[in-house]
Amino acid sequence: MTKPTIGFIGLGLMGGNMVENLQTRGYELVVMDLNKDAVKAVLDRGNAKEASSPKELAASVDIVMLALTTSDVVEKIVYGDEGILAGIKDGSTLIDFGTSIPASTRKIGADLAAKGAGMIDAPLGRTPAHAKDGLLNIMAAGDKATFDKVKPVLDDQGENVFYLGALGAGHVTKLINNFMGMTTVTAMSQAFAVADRAGVDRQQLFDIMSTGPSNSPFMGFCKNYAVDGVSDLGFSINNANKDLGYFLQMVADMGTEAKIAEGTSKYLQAAVDEGMGDGNVPEIFDYFMKL
């Protein structure tokens, strides 16, 4: 079968590696990014073109993929005068791989449906290295027929592709996942800092905690930084802070509250305010040490 033509907007570390994987697998690409070096790297690999606007890109491909930073950016790319909505073809599909606000995702999906186009929200798990090898975890949601149509492409990008139901469920799941993960890292980092202040050896604390049910990969990341000074969880405090904000907004939209998430968000924001936002999340340990 002929492979669909793919338009990809957002060639950062994750998106750039996803595009390289697609090129390796023989897909024809049309790309956009503000970073012209990233665009050049794609064009130099061949079988790819650069679009001058999201409208032009959407009009020339079968599937539009987004790997962008925030819901605000996604909405600007979709709704601008030269945006995706202005150019997307009947029967095309938009896939949002970023972490977005579910209410925004559902709104975009409805507006695309009015033009005869589909949408899948498909936030990602794992790392850019997995993206390059097509081994991501993909949490996909949307109309089942639309999902089935694009699943062969998702299978080329992910080792594990989960179908989660109605549009927005992927972003809901990703925000819950990140709430749990970032709260765990924040709590464990604070535990190491409190141990230090109390005169308890941090390595010894890890040796004890890691023999019980609290042991996890996240504990390993926190120990690597708090004990060994190695920052090896490739997810920034800025990104964690954004995602906790989205989680809290989602919870508020549901008419409820999440006090634990509010506590995590408070500390992440405080670390950002201290200029630590570009550091990986376990580096919030330094903020707790300053306290």
Structure explained in plain terms:
The chain is 54% helix and 12% strand. It has 291 residues and is an alpha/beta fold. The strands form 2 sheets. It has a 6-stranded parallel β-sheet with strand order 3-2-1-4-5-6, with helices on both faces. The mean pLDDT is 97.
For the largest beta sheet, what order do the strands appear in spatially? Answer: 3-2-1-4-5-6
Question: Which secondary-structure class do the elements indicate?
Answer: alpha/beta
Number of helices: 14
* Spatial shape: elongated
Distance, first to last CA: 60 Å
Count the E strands: 9
Poorly predicted regions are none
Q: What composes the largest sheet?
A: 6 strands, parallel
Bin the helical content. 40-55%
Order of helices and strands: EHEHEHEHHEHEEHEHEHHHHHH
The amount of beta strand, in percent, is 5-15%
How many whole angstroms does the radius of gyration measure? 20 Å
Mean pLDDT: 97
Relevant terms:
291 residues, alpha/beta, six-stranded parallel beta sheet, 14 helices, 54% helix
What's a quick, concise take on this entry?
54% of the residues lie in helices and 12% in strands. The protein is α/β, with parallel strands linked by helices and 291 residues long.
SSE diagram, text form:
Elements: E1 6-9, H1 13-24, E2 29-32, H2 36-45, E3 48-50, H3 54-59, E4 63-66, H4 71-79, H5 84-87, E5 93-96, H6 102-113, E6 118-121, E7 124-125, H7 128-132, E8 136-140, H8 144-157, E9 158-163, H9 169-197, H10 202-209, H11 217-226, H12 237-253, H13 259-273, H14 284-290
Parallel strand pairs: 1-2, 1-4, 2-3, 4-5, 5-6, 8-9
Antiparallel strand pairs: 7-8
Helix pairs in contact: 9-11, 9-12, 9-13, 9-14, 12-13
